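Quiz preparation item.
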């Protein structure tokens, strides 16, 4: 798949839209569908062709890429009422890039295999900025041969490709990573809150911890205290970035996986409770670093 190919792209939201745009820039032909007409219009303005529904989008496609909000949407589209997997032509390649439960990913893999369709679950990391810049990280589950087939397309949208393992492994790795992200964001916010409450300057404390044993990604790249770091959501009213409700969804997926595997995740469970509380207070649409505000009030 080194040459331009016909791609059906379904799900043109904050992540899917920029990903589709980068595929168009790379010279591929896209047929697109989204429930939001404005998202479809934006892709069409860049050269994509609009489909009236998802089934029409995939019938002639060599590759199908989906980027949807949650497990239930993916399951309904491919296996439920949508029955999309039955419309994908045998021999095509499916790249399912949503963050969903490993169980649903494996079920779609199995259905694809019975149809003679190649598939990868390939959730992404890097946020909307990475989607726009084409620097996403793809965390991939599925057969290695399918990854090599998909590599040129993934490299048009991302910078780092990791083969995590067999079907569903991409989802497991993604939710494990995001559980850790939630934990160290809360820990960073808690430490900053403690220091400021005891008279420290948050930037000075951040500088100290950044080069000490408390250093971590949230502290160094995505500081949650307003004004400490430029160009992060904390310094623009926690707007943009990765939403609280999206983090809450991923933590729910982590807890489901923990139950299924009888894994002990006490900090992940506590993180989910804190993000659920924060969301219930009206902050679900803010960036997940706004958990700093919950701790400041408590």
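Solution:
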């Amino acid at each position: 798949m080194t040459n331009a190919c016909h791609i059906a792209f379904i799900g043109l939201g904050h992540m899917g839209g920029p990903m589709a745009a980068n595929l168009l820039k790379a010279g591929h032909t896209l047929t697109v569908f989204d429930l939001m007409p404005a998202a479809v219009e934006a892709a069409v303005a860049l050269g994509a062709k609009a489909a009236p529904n998802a089934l029409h989008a995939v019938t002639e496609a060599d590759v199908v890429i989906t980027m949807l909000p949650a497990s239930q949407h993916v399951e309904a589209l491919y296996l439920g009422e949508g029955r999309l997997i039955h419309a994908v032509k045998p021999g095509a390649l499916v790249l399912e890039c949503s963050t969903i439960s490993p169980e649903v990913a494996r079920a779609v893999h199995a259905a694809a295999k019975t149809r003679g369709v190649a598939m990868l679950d390939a959730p992404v990391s890097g946020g909307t900025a990475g989607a726009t810049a084409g620097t996403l990280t793809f965390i991939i589950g599925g057969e290695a041969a399918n990854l090599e087939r998909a590599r040129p397309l993934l490299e048009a949208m991302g910078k780092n490709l990791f083969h995590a393992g067999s079907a569903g492994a991409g989802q497991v790795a993604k939710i494990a990573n995001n559980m850790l992200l939630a934990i160290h964001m809360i820990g960073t916010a808690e430490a900053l809150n403690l220091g400021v409450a005891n008279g420290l300057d948050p930037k000075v404390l951040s500088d100290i911890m950044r080069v000490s044993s408390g250093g971590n990604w949230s502290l160094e790249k995505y500081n949650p205290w307003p004004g400490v770091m430029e160009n992060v959501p904390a310094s623009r009213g926690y707007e943009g970035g990765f939403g609280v409700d999206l983090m809450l969804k991923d933590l729910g997926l982590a807890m489901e996986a923990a139950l299924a595997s009888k894994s002990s995740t006490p900090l992940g469970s506590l993180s989910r409770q804190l993000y659920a509380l924060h969301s219930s207070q009206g902050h679900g649409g803010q960036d997940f670093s706004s958990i700093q505000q919950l701790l400041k009030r408590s």
